[in-house]
Structures are given as C-alpha cells and as structure tokens.
Write a structure and sequence with these properties.
binds glutamic acid, 3 domains, alpha/beta, Rossmann fold, globular, single chain, seven-stranded mixed β-sheet
Length: 448
C-alpha cells in the first residue's frame, strides 16, 4: 500500500484541481483529511474502497436561477444552491445561507463540514447546505417573502422529509423559514412539517431550536474546561457576532455566571466592560433588526468601535460566532497574550488554519465547530423526531436532551483524540468520530 500521507496529499491536489477557485472548500477538506492518517493506517479498507475520494465529492449539486421583483417593480436575479453532500447516515440535512458572499465554494465548504458535524451528533442525518447570494439586509418583509417564494418554487422538487431537510443559517431565520415552508406547503399540497427545521414552535418548530447552537457551544466549552479542572463561572468572555448563535451563547454564559464584555456585527464591535445588556441587544437585533452601533447609543458606558478588531478585547473565553475565517493567527496570538484559556467555535470554520495552530501550540482548550456548534443541527434532528411523531416537547425536556447530546459529543471527541494519540486535541477527535461513522455506513452500502 502506498504511503498514507502521500496518498492524502494526492487526493487533496485532485480536490483543488477539480474544484478550481473554491478556496473555502479546499480549506475545509484539508483541515479534515490531514488528521485522518492514523485512522486510515488502522483501517486499510477505507483506502481500498476510496472512501476519502468519495467523501470529498458531493453526491449532488443543484444550481438554479431565482428571479423576483423588488418593491419598485424592478426584476432581480439571484443564484440559488443546494448541495447534497452525503446521505450515508440519513437524509441530507443542513441550513440555507442568504448572504452576498454565497457561491458554490462556500456552499460546498459548509456542506462538507456539515457531513462530519452531523455524524458527530450521533443522529441519523446526512450532510447538506444551500443558499443564495441574496442579501435580506435592508429588504422589506414583502421583498424577502417574494424572494423566498421564488427560491422554493425551484427547491421544492429536490427536498422532502426523507430526502433533504433544509434549515436556517446566516440570513435565514424564523421569518425566512416561514415563507419557505408556506410556499412548499402550497406547491406540494402537503403539510409536511419534517421537510424543514427551524420552524416557529407555534407551527411545528421545536422549542430550544433558536437557542440551541449558542447554548450548545457554551455547554461544550463548559465540558472542555471541566476536563481541565476549570469552570466557566466568573470568566470574562468575548463573543463575536450578534445573530442567533451569538445572542444565545451570551445568554447561557450569563446564566452560568460568566461575563460577556463584547460582541459585534459586520460593521464593528461594542465593548461594554460592565457586561453586555442582553435585553437591549435582543430588542435591537431581534425585534428591530438594527445594527450593533445603536447599542452604544442606548448604553452610553459601552464603546462602539467601527471596523476594529474584537479579538483585541482581553478575555479568558473567546467564542467566534460570526462567520468563516474571522479569527486569524494574529488575533489568536493577541488572545493568548491576553490570557485566553478556551475557544469554542459557534460559527463554521471561523478560525483560520494559522489561528488553529497557534491555539493548539499553546495547549489551550480549542473546540472546533464540528463539535462545538453541533447543538443547532442536533436540535433540528430533535425537531424532526417531534414532527415524525406529531408531538411537541417542553422547553425543559428539549434542553435536557440538548445538554446530554453536547456532553456525549464532548466525551466521544475527547476519548477518540486520546485513542489516536492526541489527547485534548478536539480537531482530531471530532474529525475521526465523524469520519468513522460516515465511512462505515458507506462501506456497508457498497459502491454508491
Ligand atoms: N446552519 C446550521 C449549522 O451550521 C444548522 C443546520 C440545521 O439545523 O440543519 O449547523
């Protein structure tokens, strides 16, 4: 058998050649396959059956035109995507992102990550992602509705409760999910609750789905700290972003006795040394859809920094919850110099490879998104369970399930990292846990 390392490099070169220009996808693939050497050496059958080559090639990729009319009557054209990456463990599952940066490379990186993340949850869900280069920011509700209706008018034929189950991501929240589901129901003549998750709890959604990703990240960080004999209580925290993930990470941090001193949006960040006032933030972001600069106007002892670097704010716990590659090596070094002991990724791939290397070299607790932010999609799987049984669980019960899932994810990643000779390395742990589950199912199904 050829040397495993050389083989991994050859596969990576092929991925780069076949997916030209898709930088984020290359980055996501590299980050996973470079950790798989030990598992491939222990299991030659994965190599023999070309599992890595197959796993790096999406099962299907759908690209479509999304035409719609804005409030002035002008015709707008966007591009829609849905990539079904892997369905070895269950129907395709993953969110939709509406953001101007969306192109095939972003959707593929997210779909690839999702495949492993979903496997790490231990729930029966495959991996997918989709979205559009449409920007809901600044658009009226009526415009967002017309866009969502046009998007679903093509997407509906590719999805289904046993086929592909979308949900939200950046730019897609309860409002968008409502419009999308409404159009699906209308076109298909079916009230198929399980076709989409992240629904409003008043019509088939799960209590805790909104909170789940943020709460889950904090539970995961809590477990990492516990494994080192530390706790989250009393820690000073910085959380980037101010969307769903960030807001509910902050809420759980506060509940556990930590203090959050800064958060951000794509324009800038606020530093509030007395602690971010969550009720004000929620009203501004959730009810009024306003910007983070308005927070400082309402809370005069907070400072707003336009286009600044949030990671310069000293903290012991850092939760990047905004977007990919938002925390680079320089930021990682600043965090370390300021005494940061734990990092949990609420966003997907928010830390650059250089940043990850810096955290790992320093030996701090670093939880990659595939494990740390898996609580969101795990709660989507709980929503699918409720839909399938036409049941609705209480908040307390659902949160308990989420907490158990996050503890189990931590334990699995921790044990697997140790088993493969890298104790405390959650990147190795999560990648191998996810890979083995997907790979074993693929082997069982034969060449498909
Ligand atoms: N977009 C979320 C993620 O990155 C959630 C996907 C889902 O709930 O299906 O995991």
């Amino acid at each position: 058998m050829p040397d495993i390392q050389a083989r991994i490099e050859t596969i990576f070169e092929q991925v780069v050649r076949r997916n030209a220009g898709e930088r984020e996808f290359h980055q996501a693939v590299k980050e996973v396959i470079e950790t798989l050497g030990p598992v491939l050496r222990a299991h030659p059958e994965y190599t023999e059956h070309k599992i890595i080559e197959r796993i790096c090639e999406p099962e299907r990729q759908i690209i479509f035109r999304v035409p719609w009319q804005d409030d002035r009557g002008e015709v707008q054209i966007h591009r829609g995507f849905r990539v079904g990456f892997n369905s070895a463990l269950g129907p395709y599952k993953g969110g939709l992102r509406f953001h101007p940066s969306v192109y095939l490379g972003i959707v593929k990186f997210l779909g690839f990550e999702q495949t492993f993340k979903n496997a790490v949850t231990g729930m029966p869900i495959g991996g997918a992602k989709g979205g559009s280069d449409f920007d809901p920011k600044g658009r009226s509700d009526a415009e967002v509705m017309r866009f969502c209706q046009s998007f679903m008018t093509e997407l509906y034929r590719h999805i289904g409760e046993f086929t592909d189950v979308p949900a939200g991501d950046i730019g897609v929240g309860a409002r968008e999910i409502g419009f999308l589901f409404g159009q699906y129901k209308r076109i298909t003549n079916r009230y198929e609750s399980g076709v989409i998750t992240g629904k409003d709890p008043r019509w088939g959604g799960s209590l805790v789905r909104r909170e789940a990703t943020g709460y889950g990240v904090v539970y995961f960080v809590e477990e990492m700290l516990k494994a080192r004999g530390e706790s989250i209580e009393g820690k000073t925290c910085v959380v980037s972003g101010s969307g769903n993930v960030a807001i509910y990470a902050m809420e759980k941090l506060e509940a556990l006795g930590a203090q959050v001193v800064a958060c951000s949006d794509s324009n800038g960040f606020v530093h509030h040394p007395r602690g971010i006032h969550l009720a004000t933030l929620k009203r501004l972001k959730e009810a009024e859809r306003r910007r983070i600069r308005d927070y400082a106007a309402e809370r005069p002892d907070a400072k707003y920094v336009e286009a600044g670097r949030i990671w310069d704010v000293p903290c012991q716990v850092a939760l990047p919850c905004a977007t990919e590659n938002e925390l680079d090596e320089r930021a990682a070094r600043t965090l370390l110099a300021n005494g940061c002991v734990a990092v949990g990724e609420g966003a997907n791939m928010p830390v650059t490879p250089g940043g990850v290397r810096a955290f790992q070299a320093a030996g701090i607790a670093y939880g990659p998104g595939k494990a740390a932010n898996a609580g969101g999609v795990a709660t989507s799987a709980l929503e699918m369970q409720q839909n399938a049984s036409r049941d609705a669980w209480t908040f307390e019960y659902t949160e308990r399930r989420l907490h158990e899932i996050m503890r189990r994810i931590h334990r699995d990643c921790h044990e697997t990292a140790a088993e493969f000779g890298c104790p405390g390395n959650y990147v190795v742990g999560a990648n191998i846990v996810g890979f083995r589950r997907v790979a074993d199912a693929m082997l069982a199904f034969g060449v498909v």
